[in-house]
């Protein structure tokens, strides 16, 4: 009897020790990682992290590369050495700010709370407008989910970001080392310059560099995804990438840095001759019944006056060209509805339709200039081939010359955390969807897994010793 309780006690102590190790290794920065940061940038032995460069190319549709491969020089060279996901399925709505925030947090819009490029917080009477930076800069929009650069900064990874979303807004009072947030930087010259700034900073002691270009998206919106202008924009980016790859070779960084090139969403042609029908919201609702209409085109949210909700809903219900949902009717698989910023009515255009906003009312945000009759391209639609985007990667962390099955936008965050050897925050990605593209688990993950196995065995043993079975009774 005494012997048994002694055994129980020993096993219990062992479990406790392993449990503490698991907690320490898996939830907190390892002491090893922290000292890596201090001991300079030479990577020696196991457990040290590699540098990571993330290049986001806005509006890079999944098939742009494939359809223009023969004219491009740098992309094929890059992919020969790396991994290419067949495509990346974006989130709903497939719009820039929601997609960017999913990339940096790994969670769906209903979780991170950036559910559109235009949002309205009725409680705070606050607008969020992608092109009015004094609205997007308000901290309160951004406190739901911790972005990659904050976790990296907490774990002593030195971080540099350029034109990247609202990295200039503190999360939990933490800001990355260097960041300039999203601001318009149009044209081909901007991407060239941005990539050269990226190399400069990789040569310094930065561990994580994240840069952004809107060139392909701008051209896609204006001229359409099938236009000669878009093909030229692809050549512009290819040329910038070519200079960048040369620069990486010259500086000896080429083999050392993990590089990810990804997009946020695709683009659907909606220009003249595209078989897309344009509808006008004014034909279905009366502007005096609503308080706000947010966005237009593929998807928009309506805040009717409370007493007019049914009237507005009935005006939209059952019409050709779009689906309308009361807040509680929004499909779960959009992963959109469970957020307090969701408005009373959501309208989602069907594939061959574009819906114009209220023409004459300042309740419409944004208002299109009267001169714009047709767009070349747009995005925001749910579950549509044209909304898919890209994930290309190369470096010591990735396999070489691999075409990988499709992944989802929520999956990419965990890859970044893995490459930086920092613990990922809770997210909606699936590890089994991405692990096949990676060369190995990080040292921390390997030790962590081993500890969990020992801990489990330990608990089983403890149970066995403590409750030796039902034979006694
Ligand atoms: C941007 O938003 C702020 C705050 O809502 C507002 O005061 C300002 O007029 C807006 N600027 C423009 C150019 O719309
Ligand atoms: C054109 O759009 C209509 C719906 O507006 C759709 O039924 C039809 O299949 C489309 N045709 C083509 C060739 O895409
Ligand atoms: C819109 O609503 C206003 C106020 O209720 C009303 O005066 C007007 O006639 C309505 N317009 C249409 C086209 O129904
Ligand atoms: C997306 O569309 C495809 C084909 O149209 C369909 O088979 C699939 O069920 C849809 N998925 C979702 C989540 O709606
Ligand atoms: C997405 O992840 C968040 C954070 O872990 C979680 O709260 C939420 O339930 C997840 N959503 C889905 C659909 O799994």
UniProtKB/TrEMBL annotation:
One GO MF annotation is: hydrolase activity
Q: Which Gene3D superfamilies match?
A: 3.30.1360.180, Alkaline Phosphatase, subunit A (3.40.720.10)
* Superkingdom classification of source: Eukaryota
Leader sequence residues: 1-33
Asked if the record carries the keyword Phosphoprotein, the reply is no
List the InterPro entries.
Alkaline_phosphatase_core_sf, Phosphodiest/P_Trfase
Which terms are listed as keywords in the entry?
A: Membrane, Signal, Transmembrane, Transmembrane helix
User: Which residue ranges traverse the bilayer?
Assistant: 446-467
Protein's name in the database: Ectonucleotide pyrophosphatase/phosphodiesterase family member 6
* Organism from which the protein derives: Orchesella cincta (Springtail)
């Amino acid at each position: 009897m005494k012997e048994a309780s002694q055994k129980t006690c020993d096993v219990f102590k062992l479990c406790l020790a392993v449990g503490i190790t698991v907690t320490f290794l898996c939830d907190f920065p390892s002491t090893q990682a922290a000292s890596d940061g201090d001991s300079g940038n030479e990577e020696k032995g196991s457990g040290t992290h590699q540098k990571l460069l993330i290049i986001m190319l806005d509006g890079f549709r999944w098939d742009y590369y494939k359809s223009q491969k023969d004219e491009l020089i740098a992309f094929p060279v890059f992919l020969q050495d790396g991994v290419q996901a067949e495509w990346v399925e974006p989130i709903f709505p497939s719009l820039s700010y929601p997609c960017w925030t999913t990339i940096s947090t790994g969670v769906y819009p209903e979780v991170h709370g950036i559910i559109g490029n235009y949002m309205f917080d009725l409680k705070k009477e606050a607008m969020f407008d992608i092109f009015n930076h004094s609205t997007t800069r308000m901290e309160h929009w951004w406190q739901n989910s911790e972005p990659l650069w904050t976790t990296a900064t907490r774990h002593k990874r030195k971080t540099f970001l350029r034109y990247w979303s609202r990295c200039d807004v503190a999360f939990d009072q933490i800001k990355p080392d260097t960041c300039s947030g999203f601001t318009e930087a149009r044209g081909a010259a901007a991407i060239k310059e941005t990539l050269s700034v990226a190399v400069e900073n990789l040569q310094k002691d930065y561990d994580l560099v994240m840069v952004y270009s809107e060139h392909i998206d701008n051209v896609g919106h204006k001229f359409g995804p099938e236009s000669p202008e878009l093909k030229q924009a692809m050549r512009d980016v290819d040329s910038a990438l070519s200079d960048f790859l040369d620069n990486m070779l010259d500086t000896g960084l080429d083999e050392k840095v993990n590089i990810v090139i990804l997009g946020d969403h695709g683009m659907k042609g909606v220009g003249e001759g595209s078989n897309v029908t344009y509808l006008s919201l004014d034909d279905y609702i009366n502007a005096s019944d609503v308080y706000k209409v947010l966005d237009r085109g593929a998807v928009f949210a309506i805040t009717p006056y409370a007493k007019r909700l049914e009237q507005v809903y009935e005006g939209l219900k059952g019409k050709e060209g779009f689906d309308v949902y009361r807040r509680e009717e929004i499909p779960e698989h959009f992963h959109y509805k469970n957020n307090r910023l969701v408005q009373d009515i959501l309208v989602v255009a069907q594939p061959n339709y574009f819906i114009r906003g209220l023409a004459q009312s300042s309740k419409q945000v944004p208002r299109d200039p009267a001169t714009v009759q047709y767009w070349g391209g747009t995005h925001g639609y749910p579950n549509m081939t044209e909304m898919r985007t890209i994930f290309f990667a190369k470096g010591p962390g990735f396999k070489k010359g691999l075409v990988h099955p499709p992944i989802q936008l929520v999956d990419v965050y965990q890859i970044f955390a893995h490459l930086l050897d920092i613990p990922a925050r809770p997210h909606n990605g699936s590890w089994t969807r991405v692990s096949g593209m990676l060369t190995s688990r990080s040292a921390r993950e390997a030790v962590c897994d081993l500890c969990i196995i020992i801990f489990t065995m330990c608990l089983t043993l403890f149970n066995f010793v403590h409750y030796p079975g039902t034979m006694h009774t």
